[in-house]
Request: fold
Amino acid sequence: MLYSLNMHPQMEEQSMQILQRIDSGRFGYEAISGRYASFFLGQLYDSQRKLDDAIKYYSLCTKYSEQVGATDSGYYLYSLISLGEITLKKRTR
Reply:
C-alpha cells in the first residue's frame, strides 16, 4: 500500500523491517512477505538508479518466488526482466 501511495521512505523502512524479521526467523514472516518487500525495494532502487541495490533486491525477489513456487507471478517475471534491463544498462556505460 505504501508503494501505491508513493510513500517511498515509509515503504523502504517497512520493507527492510520485513526482510530483517525473515532473516531473524521471526514467527509470521516468510518467503511470500519477502517476495513483496524485496520486489518493492528493487523497484525503488531501480527508479533511483541505485542499480547495485536494485539487482540485490530483484534477485532476492526471484529467490523468494522460487521458494514458494510462484515463478509464474508478475513479481518474479518482472524481477527477471528488470535484472536483464539493468545488465544492459551497466554494459552500455
About this structure: The chain has a mean pLDDT of 96. The chain has four helices and no strands.
